[in-house]
Amino acid sequence: MFKRKFNDLNLTQEVMLPENVMNIFLSAESLNSENPDYVIKNSLNNIKYVIHIFRRQEKRTTRESKFITGLLEQLFVHSENMCMDVIECGGLEIILEECRSRDTTTLQNCARALANLSLFGGAKIHKLMIHHHAHIWLFTLAFNADDSVKYYALLTAAVLATDKDIKAAMDNCDTLNLIDPFIATHFTADFDRIARMIGRCQGEDCRWLQRLVPVLSCDRREAHTMAAFHFSVKVGLQSQCLRSRIAETFRTIGAIVPLKNLAGSLNNVTSELAAKALWCIGEQVPRSLSQEVPRWTVNDVLQWAKSVGFGECVESLAENQINGDLLLKLTEKCLKIHVGLYNGIMRKRFTRELHKLKQLADYSCKDPTNLNSFLQSIGPEFSVYTYSMLNAGIDYDSISSLTDDRLAYECGIKNSIHRSIILNSIKGER
Questions:
Q1: For residue 147, which of 229, 71, 70, 216 has the smallest C-alpha distance?
Q2: How many other CB atoms sit within 10 Å of the CB of residue 17?
Q3: CA–CA separation, 404 vs 148, rounded Å?
């Protein structure tokens, strides 16, 4: 028997290992060497053998659990092929089994391993994670008392939320709904502590951060807010003299533009997080847009269009003097004729962004009776009808007189199911 300390794998005590397994672990420790591909190619069979040994054990000591989960965490940061090889020999199943552990270090390793796997795994592996119910375990890990376990569980959920093929599963597990409360708790008083915790637990390289960049531009607000939080924390880890280096990293991986888009967004928390990251590295921070969309100027509309990826429409929007009031009234037909969006898919994308804007907008300047609150109480998606109903002369005080025809022709609500739900909700208000 031999003894060795594995500090990189979060082991604080010595581990007793058989001699024939010792060299395998030594080679695994060198996965972060200058030539990891060579090490992996020559050690993968041995690594699989080690995983096989652990899977056969009926009982694992805490030290063994720490070791195997720490090893798997390292293995999941190299390539999609490597991730798949390790999954096929049972690596993902081990991680999920160890999510039952009560040991904090083991759970930290599990949460970071899942985060690494979500970033380096790709769409096929995301489906395997769902198949093995990893998203269910993320919800459990997000309630752990340890902030590191919570953090990486939520970050994993944010990454998985960008994969549309598993959207239904992620929506149903509710983990994304835990992101806002976590950030609200840690963004102010605990921000520095979280920054130190992440710096101690995760030495992400440029490749790791680069895979997180697409999350900054994803459709799910909670997900891109979590990504903005991570980039903001990442900057907070650096001393003033090292921030120029992290700024260059952000430029290299393409993080600046999506961060600027988020900094100019309507969501106050997301905007503040992205602005903090940009300010710390010396980048110009875009002016944050007001939520009172009906009062937007033409320049506000142009800023919004750029932030949602429609910079090519800026010229035509400016020529037509589209302000906030007109923006909220745009139809697909108007987008084609007046804005020049002849591509049907592009019009659908623009309409989707406009619907999200309508859900976030503050209509109080045009809505003294608070019709929007009533529609939001039915469902957040119903607030997209607020402005068209107000323009048709309907407010909360007059909704009792509404009919299906008025909703369809005066308010322009084409969805018959939505019209029926609105009318039934009005009956419930009486």
A1: 229
A2: 19
A3: 52
